[in-house]
Amino acid sequence: MKNKKDEKSQPSPEEVELVVTPEDYEAGLKRGWTDDDMLKPGRYKMKRGGFLARQPKLKNRKEEKTLKERNCVVQS
């Protein structure tokens, strides 16, 4: 059974800020992780889903492919 709260989900933000504290960094080192395994302490801003935004040709190909598939199904 669904709650009313479950019906409306919030979209994930396009920009995400990741904060790595020195305590987190030290805890990772104690676990045996190396410098290359972790991000250095600080704030990092990242964008979600930027691959297709940077590669518009791939997005167009995908749309063309789905249109061709739809036409094949309709004609059959």
Polypeptide structure, described:
By secondary structure, this protein is an alpha+beta fold. It has one domain. It contains four helices and two strands. It has a two-stranded antiparallel ribbon. The chain is elongated, with a radius of gyration of 22 Å. It starts with a helix and ends with a helix. The mean pLDDT is 78.
Give, in order, the helices and strands. Answer: HEHEHH
* Overall tally of structural domains: 1
What's the helical proportion of residues? 40-55%
Please tally the β strands and state the result.
2
Number of helices: 4
Structural class of the secondary structure composition? Answer: alpha+beta
What's the main sheet like? 2 strands, antiparallel
General form:
elongated
Low-confidence stretches: none
- In angstroms, what separates the terminal alpha carbons? 40 Å
How do the strands line up in the largest sheet? Answer: 1-2
Strand content: 15-25%
Compose a concise summary of this entry.
The protein has helices spanning 4-7, 22-30, 51-54, 56-75; strands spanning 15-20, 42-47.
